[in-house]
Design a protein that fits this description.
single chain; about 775 residues; alpha/beta; Beta-Lactamase; Helix Hairpins; 6 domains; 7-stranded mixed sheet; 25 helices; about 40% helix
């Protein structure tokens, strides 16, 4: 040790003995863990340590002093050594973390030879435990002083020794003033719990935790989690008590959310279970009808009996298809894959198609079914025609289903706003049915739910329609809601955003009517219908009066004898005097010079003979549309417009197709599907050739491409599917292979399925089950 430190400068007081290193060396050894020597490049050249000291300073010789530090502290070490080397400081004392994981405090002193820096000597002390305690205390202090928790330390007599800043933040009191006592900042219930059960539990177990409420300075209450525990010294004696209060407002909100989510999940599972049970019943019911009626029909010899069975089978099959479509739509919604396909279409024509079906159901229940289309609604719009029809049909079906006989169902369509080429349409489906309670309304638009479980037993249905409608409406940029009271009917209202079609008439301008001096009388016992007549005729700038029954109509005719009515719109079914009797009287009064147009929701065939004998000139079906009224007026006035046809013609006659001298190729692997297609096409006299799979279709086309004018291509077939068959046909080195129309014919009817067909080279798509009218229309479109 002496050779390491060299001579020691001694300063001795008069009369005292000289100081000897013999006592100094043990002294240094007692208070340091090692001594160290560095050369001018700060390489460790010598280390002496106590035998019991930490192994952290073993094997240091030959290493750079900065290299023994943990990476994060190396810059600190280098900076200190640089100061020592440049004589900026006479000595250095600093600590750092060694790469071995221990903290050491170092004292280094430079030494020189002939005035040149030659290195330094130093001693080191292991301060790991002390440093960790300081870090821990600093962390604890930061948590207590900077945190938002309410922390207090008490002595054993419950005198407050410390209150954290977080206590003032939590309670809202000024930190510069004394905080009120516990009795004032706790609710009475929590105060009693703390100073009763809390302290007793701490005395027994050393720890207590409970929930309660804390009173803020403004009097508001906040939920808290209160923890108290005892603090002991090294001898295990309890010396202090600690209290930690945490604001759990957010936690409770999350807890409530989790509980609500749990209950919702449980309810959803129950709803889905109920739904599956209900669907089992709903699906088996039409299946039973299909199977049962098929067997009865097969065994029947009477043609009327067979036709009756086939009619029931057709009805049950369509009902089953509706159920399946609802289930598939709901699965798309839950997977967030319900997309829209926008196109331009004649809005009023679509409404007619929808209401033609709904009016049949309404007539069966003897309901008044009224449609009011505002005159400012564009004639042509751009949106998803199929999905919009689905929502309207769903709401009308429900309204008719839940409205008792002789009730009223009304569909109102209005334009509420317009921004450039985008408009907002508002639809209202109003009924006089059973109504819906507020509680039931909350569940209406939820998947797998109906307003009441008993509804499915009495009325049937999946309980999915409104949930599907809600999603469709939302995708269309609108919203849907209900206004109802139990027993007071219901109004289902929704809005959507659509675009006006470019280059098309934006509203129905009926300026083709050549006679502007017409006088019209509309007779109907329904107030809504009379109001609608007035609205339409006002838009047409035609004079129109209305009467509620036959007697009032006759009185108006008598009062206006000097300027008589030219055209009468008369409802068939009216109380007192029906439309047939009123027509006879009008024809007598006018000497058969007036025009009578009869309106009814009933089948024209049931009244045609009697009406014709009474003198009815024309018949139109309810619900009424502006274009229907205009067309009927023009038709009766003898307008030479070839495109005008009566609703009776439209309702009771189908267009006949003649495809003779045309040949098409159909790729279809299922025999019964081939039979169905053959039956549909039989009356068209078209020549059909079949291929049982994609490969056969390619072969038949390749051998005689000039023979075929169109290909109907099934998708799912053995050997080769329709996609690949289409691609291979298109790639053939035959001119017609590139141009021949190919129409997909498949049960894959989702948007992405249709897009996949088009991308494979097909021209169009028709779905299964096959709609005869759609199939004939598409064939006509491509071979005309």
């Amino acid at each position: 040790m002496e050779s390491m430190w060299g001579d020691v400068l001694e300063e001795t007081a008069p009369g005292a003995e000289n100081m000897h290193l013999s006592w100094m060396i043990p002294f240094w050894a007692s208070f340091t863990d090692c001594v160290i020597e560095l050369d001018a490049q700060h390489i460790i050249t010598n280390v002496r340590r106590k035998s019991e000291s930490s192994s952290a300073v073993v094997g240091l010789t030959g290493k750079s002093f900065s290299a023994i530090a943990a990476e994060k502290d190396r810059d600190l070490v280098e900076d200190n050594l640089h100061q020592l080397k440049t004589a900026a400081v006479p000595y250095l004392r600093f600590q750092f973390l060694l790469s071995t994981g221990r903290y050491y405090r170092w004292t280094l002193i430079p030494f020189y030879k002939e005035g040149i820096y030659s290195g330094c000597h130093g001693v080191a002390v292991d301060v790991t435990e002390q440093t960790i305690k300081e870090i821990t205390l600093n962390w604890q202090s930061a948590v207590m002083d900077d945190g938002r928790d309410f922390v207090r330390i008490f002595d054993l007599d419950m005198r407050i020794l410390y209150t954290s800043p977080g206590a003032y933040k939590m309670t809202g009191y000024d930190s510069t003033s004394d905080m009120p006592s516990s009795e004032h900042i706790y609710t009475p219930e929590h105060y009693k719990n703390v100073y009763g059960n809390g302290l007793e539990t701490i005395n027994k177990q050393g720890f207590w935790i409970a929930r309660g409420e804390l009173v803020r300075s403004d009097g508001t209450l906040i939920p808290i989690e209160h923890t108290m525990f005892s603090i002991s010294n090294d001898q295990g004696e309890v010396i202090l008590l600690a209290s930690v209060i945490r604001d759990i407002t957010v936690f409770i909100e999350h807890e409530k959310d989790l509980e609500e989510a749990r209950l919702a999940a449980e309810a959803a599972n129950v709803a889905k279970s109920d739904f599956l049970s209900r669907m089992s019943h709903e699906i088996r019911t039409p299946m039973n009808a299909i199977i049962g009626m098929t067997n009865i029909g097969l065994g029947a010899s009477d043609i009327e009996r067979k036709n009756y069975c086939f009619t029931r089978v057709d009805s049950a099959a369509k009902h089953l298809l509706d159920l399946i479509n609802d289930i598939l739509d709901m699965s798309k919604i839950e997977a967030d894959k319900l997309d829209l396909s926008y196109s331009e279409f004649d809005f009023e024509k679509v409404l007619k198609n929808i209401t033609n079906i709904a009016s049949i159901r309404a007539e069966e229940k003897q309901l008044h079914f009224i449609v009011k289309l505002s005159s400012d609604v564009p004639a042509f719009i751009i949106c998803d025609e199929m999905r919009l029809s689905q929502v309207i049909t769903n709401l009308l079906t429900n309204a008719i289903k839940f409205t008792p006989e002789n009730g009223t169902v009304t569909l109102n369509i209005d334009k509420t706003s317009e921004d450039g080429d985008e408009i907002t349409l508002r639809f209202e489906v109003i009924d006089t049915g059973i109504g819906i309670t507020k509680e039931q309304q909350e569940r209406l638009f939820t998947s797998f739910n109906q307003a009441d479980a008993s509804i499915s037993q009495k009325y049937g249905g999946t309980g999915l329609g409104l949930a599907i409608s809600k999603r469709i409406v939302e995708i269309m940029g609108g919203e849907i809601w209900v206004i109802s009271e139990l027993g007071q009917g219901a109004a289902f209202i929704f809005t959507i955003r659509v675009k006006k079609a470019e280059g098309k008439a934006q509203t129905q301008h009926y300026e083709r009517i050549r006679q502007r001096n017409l006088r019209i009388l509309a007779v109907d016992d329904a107030t809504e219908v009379r109001d609608y007549f007035k609205q339409i005729m006002d838009a047409l700038k035609l004079q129109c009066d209305v009467a509620s029954d036959g007697h009032q109509a006759l009185q108006l005719i008598q009062d206006t004898a000097a300027d008589p009515y030219n055209i009468f719109f008369i409802d068939w079914k009216m109380p007192g005097m029906d439309g047939i009797e009123l027509t006879r009287k009008i024809k007598e009064i006018s000497n058969n010079n007036s025009i009578v147009i009869m309106t009814s929701a009933s089948d024209w065939n049931s009244v045609e003979k009697e009406a014709a004998e009474a003198g009815v000139n024309h018949f139109i079906s309810k619900p009424l549309f502006p274009s229907t009224l205009v067309n009927s007026i023009e038709l009766c006035l003898g307008a030479e417009l070839s495109e005008i046809k009566s609703d009776a013609d439209n309702n009771f006659s189908k267009q006949k197709y003649d495809f003779s001298e045309h040949t098409i190729l159909i790729a279809e692997d299922i025999e019964i599907n081939r039979e169905i297609i053959s039956a549909i096409l039989e009356e068209t006299r078209i020549c059909v050739e079949y291929a049982e799979d994609g490969k056969k279709a390619i072969s038949m086309f390749s051998e005689n491409p000039g023979r075929y004018e169109l290909v109907l291509m099934d998708i799912n077939m053995p050997e080769m599917d329709g996609y690949e068959a289409t691609r291979q046909i298109r790639s053939l080195d035959i001119a017609k292979a590139k141009s021949i129309p190919i129409i997909a014919m498949t049960a894959n009817v989702f948007k992405e399925d249709i897009e996949k067909c088009i991308s494979s080279g097909m021209n169009d798509h028709t779905g299964k089950p096959i709609d005869a009218d759609e199939l004939l229309d598409k064939i006509y479109q491509y071979i005309k």
